[in-house]
Design a protein that fits this description.
- This protein is an alpha+beta fold and 445 residues long.
- The chain has 4 domains: 3-88, Uridine Diphospho-n-acetylenolpyruvylglucosamine Reductase, domain 2 (2-Layer Sandwich), CATH 3.30.43.10; 95-213, Uridine Diphospho-n-acetylenolpyruvylglucosamine Reductase, domain 3; 219-315, 2-Layer Sandwich (Alpha-Beta Plaits), CATH 3.30.70; 321-421, Alpha-Beta Plaits.
- The protein has 14 helices and 18 strands.
- The strands form 4 sheets. It has a 7-stranded antiparallel sheet, with helices on both faces. Strands 5-6-10-8-9 form a 5-stranded antiparallel sheet. Strands 1-2-4-3 form a 4-stranded mixed sheet.
- Strand 8 and strand 9 form a beta hairpin.
- Helix 1 runs antiparallel to helix 3 (48-60) and helix 12 (337-351) runs antiparallel to helix 13.
- The longest helix has 17 residues, at 379-395.
- It is globular and about 75 Å long.
- The structure holds flavin-adenine dinucleotide (FAD).
């Protein structure tokens, strides 16, 4: 029997889809819109035992498998090549338990992030992971990409909120360590190895996530600033005066593109959304006015106000306005972000005069996002922009991916951020955990 027939026999036709049904289910591309090929089959196992069985069959047949979560990734990591099988976690979802004593949630990998957030809130806790794709991305995908997002400045990345993990290796072996303890020094920490492994080392099936107290007295403001020095000054002041939950900066062109004129009729050179918990925001803003750091600010008087501010940052999706865009998410020393933006803008305009670039980011975490619109762009155009963005970030001491991961889109540039020895160690780990090379081949390395 061939691999697909064996998978169909083992999982049943409902959980191993082939043929025309696949097109309707749209497993062709993640949110980078770079995927071209449908999988040979889409596996939808509903239990850890079925995931293990599916991988064991694929391993025996040397059948490549691409783990798929909510398909909101921006690095092409969940896209299939011709002949790959996709393994979706969508049917293995749900919160299994909330442990109020440990402050932990035991959750299945296919659970949509927003569902997990709501479950935590219903139990009186905060799940401190949040990103714009919350309505579609899955916990497994969040862990596999070590997602960052909007709360990193307060609570860290997904990795920092991961207490325990269960995953299935390429040959079907289940590695289960659903620990609820914060202290656990029992050998190599596979949690940290698998977080950010982008589906290349194992399929994540369940996790124990840390919960935090619900924040009290959350306050939100959007501030107008004259220059990047003022952004840095506001950041320093805020770090010492208040408990920051978010610090998100937008350069003028991004702010205008995303409907910022609804908030400030004259577009400021920089705007920053500051969100705090525990009070003190208005005092902070008064100090910032007195010190000449900000020249205007709107303070949210209701959740609806705060949502209006956030909509500009994340809701009014620029993809809707710009069909041909390439996304970048670099990390670099926070003080260099504007020099980087200026250098990129000039170099991109010289190389591709019709291109427009827009800058924004989780600047409190040294994470800058760039969207480059290149009308009717070709692969060569994208490569030219990649080279500009990544050469400059390397020269300024940054790295090519802050949070979206490497996937396929940044694979050829990984050497800009990691040394030859590190890459060799990564290849050795990959070979040890997936000797047949069936898990998400062609991604990351
Ligand atoms: C509007 C928008 C806003 C975003 N904002 C942010 C942001 O602020 N911060 C951020 O970090 N990202 C952001 N992203 C990117 C994306 O949402 C994250 O990378 C997210 O974590 C991907 O989750 P997913 O379930 O959609 O994964 P997918 O896109 O399905 O997969 C991503 C990678 O993980 C692997 N994978 C998925 N599930 C598993 C599993 N169970 N086991 C093993 N591997 C698996 C895939 O093979 C692939 O390599 C944003 C995307 C959009 C569209």
């Amino acid at each position: 029997m061939d691999a697909i027939s064996e998978l169909q026999a083992a999982l049943g036709p409902e959980a191993c889809l082939t043929g025309p049904t696949l097109d309707a289910i749209a497993h062709r591309s993640d949110a980078s819109a770079t995927g071209r090929d449908l999988p040979l089959a889409l596996l939808r196992p509903g239990s850890v035992a079925e995931i293990s069985m599916a991988l064991e069959i694929c391993h025996r047949h040397h059948q490549p498998v691409v783990p798929q979560g909510g398909m909101t990734g921006l690095a092409g990591g969940a896209n299939c090549r011709p002949g790959d099988v996709a393994l979706s976690l969508a049917r293995f979802d749900g919160v299994e338990e909330i442990d109020p004593f440990a402050g932990a949630m035991i959750i299945r990998a296919g659970t949509v992030l927003e569902t997990a957030q709501n479950a935590a809130e219903d139990a009186g806790f905060l799940l401190p992971i949040d990103l714009g794709a919350r309505g579609s991305c899955q916990i497994g995908g969040n862990i596999a990409t070590n997602a960052g997002g909007l709360r990193v400045i307060r609570h860290g990345t997904v990795r920092d909120n991961l207490l325990g993990l269960e995953a299935v290796q390429a040959d079907g072996t289940v590695l289960s360590h659903l620990s609820r303890m914060q202290k656990n020094n029992t050998g190599y920490d596979l949690r940290h190895l698998l977080a950010g492994s982008e589906g290349t080392l194992a399929v994540i099936t369940r996790a124990v996530l840390r919960l935090r107290p619900l924040p009290k007295n959350v306050e939100t403001a959007i501030c107008a600033l004259e220059g990047y020095d003022a952004v840095l000054a506001l950041m320093s002041l805020a770090r010492t005066e208040v408990t920051l939950c978010a610090f998100e900066a937008m350069w003028a062109d991004y702010f205008e593109l995303c409907g910022g004129r609804r908030l400030f009729a004259d577009i400021p050179p920089f705007t920053v959304i500051v969100e705090t918990e525990g009070g003190g925001l208005e005092t902070l803003l008064e100090r910032a006015f007195e010190d000449g750091i900000i020249f205007d600010a709107l303070v949210a008087r209701s959740r609806a106000d705060a949502r209006r501010f956030w909509e500009v940052r994340e809701g009014a999706l620029p993809e809707a306005h710009l069909p041909d865009i390439a996304n970048f998410d670099v990390s670099l020393p926070i003080a260099s972000a504007d020099s980087y933006a200026r250098a990129c803008r000039v170099a991109i305009a010289e190389a591709l005069p019709s291109a427009r670039s827009f800058f924004f980011g989780h600047i409190g975490d040294s994470n800058l996002h760039i969207m480059v619109e290149v009308p009717g762009y070709s692969d060569a155009d994208v490569h030219a922009v990649d080279r500009i963005a990544y050469d400059i970030v390397r020269d300024m001491g940054g790295v090519i991916s802050a949070e979206h991961g490497i996937g396929t889109l940044k694979r050829d540039w990984l050497g800009h951020s990691r040394g030859a020895g590190e890459l060799a160690a990564m290849r050795a780990i990959k070979a040890a955990l997936d000797p047949a090379g069936i898990l998400n081949p062609g991604k990351v390395l």
